[in-house]
Design brief:
Number of domains: 2
Shape: rod-shaped
Strand order of the largest sheet: 2-1-5-4-3
Structural class: alpha+beta
Helix content: 40-55%
Length: about 575
């Protein structure tokens, strides 16, 4: 069954069609904004990391240049040949002079660093460190020309540092440059001070170098993620850590062979967009709620009254004119409902008036028919009594008088239009007895089940049928005539069958009679059958009425049928 598109449903669909495209467009726009912000954050962070790393590498380059220039100092040649000096004072002066120059070279960098110069030929060296074991420091397996992370111990304290060696041709001189990771931590601390970043240096074979206020647990999760990922020299990864989404940016240092890593929570960066989006969705939810409230108000004040009116109109269409609508509205629809009730009441009153008028009209018609039939019948009966009196046929006179008195006592009682089938059959017997006395060639039989005799029927229902059978069927014949009246009942279906042995009707004549039963009454047609047919329909419904057919006795068979209403 197709769903009816009511006004309320249309309003809801229009509201949804209004809101859904807006939500889709906003969601798409919000996603585009998020992607743009992500890309901007990624590019900004990568550029920032690259810039900081380039500054660090510039410092490392300065240290390397300083190491390369140390060998050009004249005093370095004195160190190479220091073993040739016999005077210890001269040796101390040479080393002191070299230390001053090493400190000057280290001062060119803003990082705290240490220089150590070692001459394999002299077997000694000079350092800015507190102490040094030159043999161990410059062992062949410890020499590296690239920056190398190394953990050493000094006075029982572990020191993390980066070391690089510059070996001059012929290994006549080896310069070691070193700086501790505190320099890197200082740089990381400065980076972190500018935002919510948490940078650190990462190498897959060593412990990460964290800033001093780093979240150790979160940094370890990032390191674990990087260890399990294939990364390039620089890039960005998105990873969920401890229930939050993070953007991990990294740039690899070519000089240190370490990677500068920075991770930032996306919630922090995208919170303005998220808050704006939440505000928009809250506004749309409020709009939707207000729309639903308005729709419900329209449903209550428009759809419900319209549905009531439709229901009332359908009831009127089905013939139920007693329908009344409950009116609780105080608006235009309340006026319409009130007027509908008034209209229905007026229609019902008009129908009742028409119904009553039809009853009065039919009763008047019946009384008119009685007045038209009875005088002619009475004249014939009185003429029969006069003739029989002259012939001194007392029994015939008595029988005619008794039947005639019973007949007129029944037909002239018009105050009650309902009777029983038993009383109606008594009238028919009186009428048939009168006709038998007059015609002296009429036989009749009546077979009605006892269970049907108490049925309530309209008065004068059988007599017009019997009279038509005699006048139009039996009287024109000069031979004996027969008539039968039988009854049958199946459940609530009742049938009374009147047959005569009169002249047989052709099919055309029978069809004409059937047509006249349904036609309006006029002055040119007989009204006996028509009146009985219409009264049956009026009393028992449209399924009741008169049926015409050929009789088994040879004449016309008239069947009265109706349904008993318990």
């Amino acid at each position: 069954m197709p769903v009816k598109m009511t006004i309320f449903r249309k309003l809801i669909i229009m509201l949804l069609l209004l809101i859904i495209p807006i939500l889709i467009l906003h969601t798409y726009s919000n996603q585009v904004s998020v992607n743009v912000v992500r890309n901007e954050i990624k590019e900004s962070n990568l550029q920032h990391l690259s810039f900081l790393l380039s500054q660090a590498e510039a410092t490392l380059e300065q240290l390397s240049i300083a190491a390369n220039t140390i060998g050009r100092f004249q005093v370095i040649d004195d160190l190479i040949h220091i073993h040739e000096k016999d005077n210890n004072y001269d040796k101390v002066v040479i080393k002191q002079d070299i230390i001053e120059k090493l400190r000057l070279s280290g001062a060119s960098s803003n990082w705290i660093n240490q220089f150590t110069v070692y001459s394999p030929q002299a077997g000694t060296g000079v350092t800015t460190l507190n102490e040094a074991d030159y043999t161990e420091m410059f062992a062949p397996d410890r020499i590296t020309e690239n920056w190398l992370y190394r953990e050493t111990a000094e006075n029982g304290t572990s020191i993390e540092q980066f070391v690089k060696h510059t070996v001059y041709p012929g290994s006549r001189l080896i310069v070691e440059i070193s700086f501790t990771v505190n320099n890197i931590r200082n740089m990381l601390d400065q980076i972190k001070m500018t935002g919510k970043n948490d940078p650190f240096f990462y190498h897959e074979d060593n412990r990460p170098i964290l800033n001093r206020s780093a979240d150790q647990s979160l940094a370890n999760d990032v390191v674990h993620f990087l260890n399990g990922s294939e990364t390039n020299d620089s890039g960005t990864e998105y990873v969920k850590l401890q229930g939050k989404q993070y953007m991990v940016n990294y740039v690899k240092s070519d000089a240190l062979n370490w990677t500068l890593v920075d991770y930032v929570p996306m919630e922090y960066r995208l919170s303005p967009i998220k808050n704006s989006s939440l505000l928009f969705y809250a506004s749309m939810a409020t709009l939707l709620a207000m729309g639903i409230v308005v729709a419900l108000m329209l449903y209550r004040n428009v759809q419900v009254p319209v549905s009531q009116l439709l229901h009332g109109v359908r009831k009127l269409e089905m013939g139920n004119f007693s329908v009344r609508l409950v009116n609780k509205q105080r608006n235009e629809f309340g006026f319409l409902l009130q007027r509908f009730n008034q209209m229905a009441a007026q229609i019902e009153q008009l129908i009742e008036n028409v119904y009553s008028e039809r009853l009065r009209s039919r009763e008047a018609t019946l009384k008119q028919l009685q007045s038209q039939i009875n005088p002619h019948f009475l004249y014939n009966s009185l003429a029969f009594i006069k003739s029989m009196t002259e012939l001194e046929e007392k029994e015939a006179v008595i029988a005619m008088t008794l039947n005639l008195s019973h007949y007129y006592r029944y037909t002239t009682r018009v105050e009650n239009q309902e009777t029983t089938l038993r009383e109606e059959l008594e009238l028919v017997k009186n009428y048939l007895n009168i006709q038998s006395l007059q015609m002296q060639r009429l036989e009749y039989e009546i077979h009605i089940p006892e269970s049907m005799l108490q049925l309530s029927i309209p008065r004068l229902l059988l007599q017009p049928i019997v009279e038509n059978a005699i006048i139009h069927g039996l009287e024109p014949q000069m031979k004996w005539g027969r008539m039968s009246v039988t009854g049958e009942r199946v459940n609530n279906k009742v049938r009374l069958i009147i047959e005569d042995s009169g002249e047989s009707l052709s099919n055309q004549e029978l069809d004409r009679l059937k047509h006249e039963l349904e036609a309006p009454l006029d002055g040119e047609m007989g009204c006996g059958l028509w009146n009985v047919h219409q009264r049956l329909k009026f009393r028992f419904g449209q399924d009741a009425g008169v049926l015409l057919s050929h009789a088994a006795l040879g004449g016309l068979c008239v069947t009265l049928q109706w349904t008993v209403i318990d």
